[in-house]
């Protein structure tokens, strides 16, 4: 597995620069990403060459979970609050580098300016989305119906054998 800053960990293989379909033979299929990740961790712990393994999300879905209904008071309150936090941060930075000692003016100016800008940006954003018929707050997530673990053909049989052993162990809940 690689992270955003870990670079290529594929042994001699370079990661593709353009979208490329995965290669390999299926060695396991799981309902959740956590189960697939657990399988790959198990393979890694058993000296399997995991640099040849790919987790593929199949049957992709965009899931939008509704958080609540938007209204002007909620939008403006949230905008003012987020603007106040940012303004307070900027005011504290200005106060830190102020030539006057113990002056709260930069903090107060930053706080007030932050609230004003937060209100303006929230109002403009809500007005434009509201005119498009959008009056709910939601969170979107891309999920898969299942997660297949693929391995290169030369190690697929060994991978299947190891994952069969994992499947026979009592499962633990991973959070």
From TrEMBL:
Keywords from UniProt, A to Z, are:
Membrane, Transmembrane, Transmembrane helix
Pfam families in the cross-refs: YflT
Is DNA-binding set as a keyword in this record? no
Where is region (Disordered) located? 1-23
Its transmembrane ranges are: 75-97, 103-127
- Which domain of life does the UniProt lineage start with? Bacteria
What name does UniProt use for this protein?
Answer: General stress protein 17M-like domain-containing protein
Q: Which organism is it from?
A: Actinophytocola oryzae
